[in-house]
Design a protein that fits this description.
Elements lengths: L1 E3 L3 E5 L4 E5 L3 E5 L3 H12 L3 E5 L3 H10 L1 E4 L7 E3 L2 E3 L13 E6 L6 H9 L2 E9 L6 H8 L4 E6 L4 E5 L2 E4 L11 E5 L6 H10 L5 E3 L3 H22 L3 H6 L1 H20 L12 H8 L3 H14 L10 H7 L6 H14 L5 H14 L7 H5 L2
Parallel strand pairs: 4-5, 4-9, 5-8, 6-13, 9-10, 10-11, 14-15
Antiparallel strand pairs: 1-2, 2-3, 6-7, 11-14, 12-13
Helix pairs in contact: 3-4, 6-8, 6-11, 6-12, 6-13, 8-9, 8-10, 8-12, 9-10, 12-13
């Protein structure tokens, strides 16, 4: 007979009575959309998961009512018990079993202090996983060391925290068609611990181990740079952006600039939204056939996706929170400048989103029309 309790898998038969520890203690630092969604699946699988979040109402809801996740199919809709603590309560972890795996799921600008908060509670072999939009591994390594730093990309997950204890996914599961999670070591070697991360994430959606973390990171940066800020500045959702010629053409230029800079920096880029990296540069440079192909794919991508789906930066604007525009498009501009390359479309988008974020302008298609 086999059954689960909070931390252990018990196996009992007529020959033996033994207790087997189930896996590692996992901390989700930042139970926002991605952190709560991923951690929710792990908690449902019986993993020892602790959520940490600064939003007290969200923490209370998780503890009292569990985490409620929803998606486009019935199988994705469920509630699971969860243990969550506020930032103030983190110090209490000193009296508990240490953390083996800490998923850093905070906004980029919160990475440093969040990692510092986690550092003292890691086990001797404990490590951090950057499960974030931007490139934050160096920030994490500055605090815990490169040996305790790994990364993971979440591609096309489109989740939103819609209320305390509630996360909604607005796109279909990746499954065999698209690998959502790509976990990797900073040195590119395949290790048991990174294979363990991929296995954990496979309970959520398709996952793999990559030996090209930095190339995957920049490729995801390109995908974010071409869509996140456009939705944030224009006020359009993901589907509306893909159906509007102005925003489609802008996303191509944004991607082309980011690809060009990434390749110049030496990254081995992966396929980006179904096209090869050089295709985006060709389209930016005026290849009409490539532009037509890309626009067709963009329009088709809205099929099966919820009209309510919107990228994280658009969610931030709606909730009057600080965005990651400087860590995404601004990062592209900054890195390009270091090697003598310009990214005028990305720079203009940074300005447009900043205008909206600071309340100087309202979201409008006109804000991006002239970029």
């Amino acid at each position: 007979m086999r059954y689960l309790n909070k931390f252990y898998l018990i196996t009992i038969d007529k020959y033996q009575h033994r207790r087997i520890e189930m896996g590692k203690r996992i901390l989700i630092m930042g139970a926002g959309a991605v952190g709560a969604y991923v951690g929710g699946y792990m908690a449902r699988m019986g993993e020892d998961v602790i959520f940490v979040d600064p939003w007290a109402e969200h923490v209370a809801a998780m503890n009292n009512d569990g985490l409620t996740l929803s998606g486009l199919t019935d199988a994705e809709c469920f509630n699971t018990p969860a243990r969550a603590i506020t930032l103030t309560d983190v110090q209490g972890l000193k009296r508990e079993k240490p953390i083996d795996i800490a998923f850093i799921c905070m906004k980029s600008y919160d990475t440093a202090w969040a990692t510092m908060l986690v550092k003292d509670y890691l086990s001797p072999t404990g490590f951090c996983v950057s499960l974030q939009n931007c490139i934050n591994e160096e920030t994490i390594a500055d605090i815990v060391g490169w040996g305790r730093t790994t990364g993971c990309i979440a591609a096309k997950i489109a989740v939103e925290l819609i209320g305390p204890g509630k996360v909604r996914r607005g796109v279909p599961l990746g499954g065999k068609k698209h690998t959502v999670f790509r976990a990797g070591e900073v040195h590119g070697r395949i290790t048991p611990r990174i294979e363990e991360i991929a296995k954990l994430l496979s309970s959520v959606d398709s996952a793999k181990v990559t030996n090209n973390l930095w190339g995957e990171r920049w490729s995801k940066l390109v995908a974010n740079a071409m869509r996140n800020g456009v939705c944030a500045a224009s006020g359009l959702g993901a589907n509306a952006c893909d159906q509007e010629t102005i925003t489609r053409r802008l996303t191509i230029r944004l991607a082309g600039e980011a690809v060009k800079i990434g390749k110049a920096l030496g990254y081995q880029l992966e396929t980006i939204n179904k096209f090869e990296p050089d295709d985006w540069v060709a389209a930016m440079d005026g290849d009409t056939g490539m532009i037509a192909s890309m626009e067709k794919v963009m329009e088709e991508s809205a099929i099966g996706r919820s009209d309510a789906s919107r990228p994280s930066m658009a969610q931030d604007i709606d909730k009057k929170r600080r965005t990651e525009i400087h860590a995404i498009n601004g990062f592209v501009v900054e890195k390009g400048a270091e090697i003598g390359l310009t990214a005028p479309a990305n720079a203009a988008l940074v300005e447009a989103v900043t205008q909206v974020e600071t309340g100087k302008s309202k979201q409008s298609l006109d804000l991006v029309r002239s970029i």
